[in-house]
């Protein structure tokens, strides 16, 4: 589940979980959360960002799968309408994407 390290993302997650729980009850289905992907992380943005990351990490189930830094490659790939892995396969963000794939496949 992609999230950002900010209060509004945590609020949105709370609302989403309520909706998922309602669907699980209404439709008698099972939904498994694999984990969080904290996206666009930049510790230079201060206490709100760093404390929010710690809050996400405090969840044990589901865990934080990876933290993707806020770097230019992701924005450039979007602007060029290319996948990040194609545009910049060796950047730190691409390695984070591979890390997610390895954890989900395991």
List the helices and strands and how they pair.
Layout: E1 2-4, H1 7-27, E2 36-41, H2 47-58, E3 64-69, H3 72-79, H4 84-87, H5 92-105
Parallel strand pairs: 1-2, 2-3
Summarize this structure briefly:
By secondary structure, this protein is of the alpha/beta class. The chain folds into 2 domains: 69 residues; 36 residues, no CATH class. The protein has 5 helices and 3 strands; from the N terminus they run E-H-E-H-E-H-H-H.
Would you mind describing this structure in some detail?
This protein has 106 residues and is an alpha/beta fold. The protein folds into two domains: 1-69; 71-106, no CATH class. The chain is built from five helices and three strands, in the order βαβαβααα. The protein has a three-stranded parallel beta sheet with strand order 1-2-3, with helices on both faces. Helix 1 (7-27) links the parallel strand 1 and strand 2. The protein is globular.
Q: Mean of residue pLDDT?
A: 93
Distance between the termini: 17 Å
How many structural domains are formed by the residues? 2
Strand order of the largest sheet: 1-2-3
Biggest pleated-sheet summary: 3 strands, parallel
Low-confidence stretches: none
Strand content bin: 5-15%
The number of helices is: 5
Order of helices and strands: EHEHEHHH
**Shape, please?**
globular
Helix content: 55-70%
What integer value in Å does the Rg equal? 15 Å
Structure summary, number of beta strands:
3
What class would the helix/strand composition place it in? alpha/beta
